Amino acid sequence: MGFFKKQLLDIIQWLDESSNTLVYMFPMEDQEIQNGAQLTVRPGQVAIFVEQGQIADVFGPGMYNLETKNLPLLSDLKGWAYGFKSPFKSDVYFLNMKEFLNNKWGTNNPVWIPDSQFGQVQVRAHGNYAFKIENPVVFLTNIVGTKSRYRLEDITEQLRGFIVNQFTDIIGSLQLTVTQIASNYNEIAAALSDTLGEPFGKLGLSVTHFTIGNIGLPEEIEKHLKELTGMNILGSVQNDKLSKIQILKQLEIMSKSTENDGLNAMMQNGMGLGMGLHMGNAFAGGLNQMNANQMAQAAAMNAQPVSTPVAPATPAGELMPCPNCQSMIKQGSKFCPECGQKIEVAEKKRFCTGCGKQVEGGVKFCPECGTKIGE
């Protein structure tokens, strides 16, 4: 009766129909391996013989006839000095060496990360990763133990703990503020993947792919950042509007000056050039808000030495251009309120209100057009 209770194995193989099994121990209860039995290890698998808890022979993908010559370590453990012919028992483990994809990781609770602006900030994070068995002997020895089947769910919680622990350290080492985190997901993921090499390696595993899906900030900080972004955008728009308003004001001044006979005459005699230069400065000032290089060029131009001509006198109560910066200032001013230039008033000159020509003192009628010259 004992003969019928034990069956002799002539084929040892693992037909994996699951997608989540890492290790499978071939069932040996009431069975023995006969001399010359065939071992089939399929692509993506490794078979390991274990004798009383000790790792013996390891087989990669292929077909093998089990004999003493290809079981040297097991032969030593069994004490087969001259080979074996009788059936024997041994634990045979098959390990799945494929890549296990799309594993989820995430923080069950918020974790604290350092931030230069807010001090310590609580964040939540999640993403995906992939891994595979890199060293089957280490994995079988340190992780599997005596379990007959080891599945993905038996280890993912441990791996998630590794990831979350390293996540906090990586954020701190990269010295990223909360405002910089969102634009540096790839950098954070690459650093995490490298750092996880050591703890995964101790289990005989390796990280093959790692991604960050999201790093969520506390609601109040997200609100603050949105408000700050909105203020920055509004400030940019307002600066642009202010530049345009300044230009419009200068255009308005020039338009009004053409309605004033005396001032219009001065512009016809060359002072219009100064106001034109002032308008150019106003346009450059508006553009400088958007271009730092143009600002530097304008500053260099303004730094050039400028001679100080004597400003001509203008009719009482009218405007006159500053001889230095060309800003329109009140006649009679001793200093320019824009640039601080001292104003030296020349001898009063008179102009014809009809044709704008300068006339000599004491004449009563314009020698060009005959218009009466006022006192």
From TrEMBL:
This is Band 7 protein. It comes from the Bacteria. Residues 23-232 form the SPFH domain. Coiled coil: none annotated. Residues 322-370 form the DZANK-type domain. InterPro entries: Band_7/SPFH_dom_sf, DUF1407/YfgJ-like_sf, DZR, SPFH_YdjI. SUPFAM superfamilies: Band 7/SPFH domain, YfgJ-like. Gene3D superfamilies: Band 7 domain (3.30.479.30), YfgJ-like (2.10.290.10). It holds the Pfam family Band_7_1.
